Amino acid sequence: NIGAATTDLTGKSCNKYTFHYAYDTYMLAHGTGTVTTEQVGKNWYILYPNYAFGQDMEKSFTAAITAAGGQVVGKDGAPFPNTSGDYSSFLLKAPTLNPKPQVLGTMQAGAELVNVVKQYNEFKLRDKGVGLAVGLMFITDIHSLTPAALAGTTYTDAWYWNFDQQNREWADRFQSETGTRPSFAHAANYSAAMQYLEAVQAVGTDDADAVVEELEGKDVNDLFLRNGRIRAEDHRVVHDAYLAQVKPQAEVKEPWDYVKILKTIPAAEAFRTPSPDCKL
Asked: Which of the chain's termini has less CB crowding within 10 Å, N or C?
């Protein structure tokens, strides 16, 4: 599973035939929540979409912020789906809280994230001393909004196309086929498909039990997984993650090179330890 984020996939809802591959809410919160609290501000206001993903993000971020010495001074669950696209009541509330938040943590994703960021800029919250941290963001979101709309925003990324030469070479191949640069989800899907196919090749069958046994406990280094390991205990695929920051528009030297990597989060730190709730 590439797209899902909830830690329940390697907790109470784990199963023998599911591997959680790219990221989860713990990874996102551990990177962004911890470092932003330490380096930007300790008081947070969290805005999250009120369904399973958003609720898990709020819980994971609150835990990371608190562990880093910060506090959540306010939080609200916005309707999901938010058909109106209006977040004004939440965003206007943030600067009025006491104590005043130094960071707005938005847990929306995709089109809803785009609406939040546009309105955050419209209401000039950064000028009012409320910085922006994004729970989950894809490079396609930055492309849609432009780096100017997100300059200085921190977030945790599972992979970046221009991180090193290996990533760039694969991204060049991807762009030649698709006309666009890949997000971490594209790279993770490619990696997961290759790992599955290589396991089938190694055991000489696509029998599910045999393939699972081949994958469990495997150490992997490929274009997506750096210091990767497919944990046998809970099927969490751990790997290095990255704290990223959106560049100011003036620092963007080529299309799609929108972020700088502030820190590599080692695989051993990026993900939580196996949960006792997982019974494979």
From this structure: C
Kindly provide the residue ranges of all beta strands, DSSP E only, lying in 31-102, ordered along the sequence.
Answer: 43-49, 71-78
Domain map of the chain by residue range?
Answer: 25-163+240-270, 164-238
Mean pLDDT of 81-96: 95
**What are the backbone angles phi and psi of residue 237, rounded to the nearest 5°?**
-95, 110
- The yes-or-no verdict on residue 4 having pLDDT over 90 is yes
Q: Which CATH superfamily is domain 25-163+240-270 in?
A: Response regulator (3.40.50.2300)
CB 213 within 8 A of CB 252: no
- Cis geometry, peptide bond prior to residue 81 (ω within 30 degrees of 0): yes
Q: Backbone dihedral region of 207: left (phi > 0), alpha (psi from -120 to 50 degrees) or beta?
A: beta
The dihedral built from the CA positions of residue 6, 77, 105 and 83, taken in this order, carries a sign that is positive
pLDDT at 143 over 90: yes
Q: Please classify residue 122 by burial: count the beta carbons closer than 10 Å to its beta carbon, then call 0-12 exposed, 13-18 middle and 19+ buried.
A: exposed
- Whether the per-residue pLDDT at 280 is higher than 90: the answer is yes
**Residue 35: pLDDT band with limits 50, 70, 90:** confident
CATH 3.30.1330.10 matches 164-238 = no
CA 138 to centroid of chain Cα atoms: 8
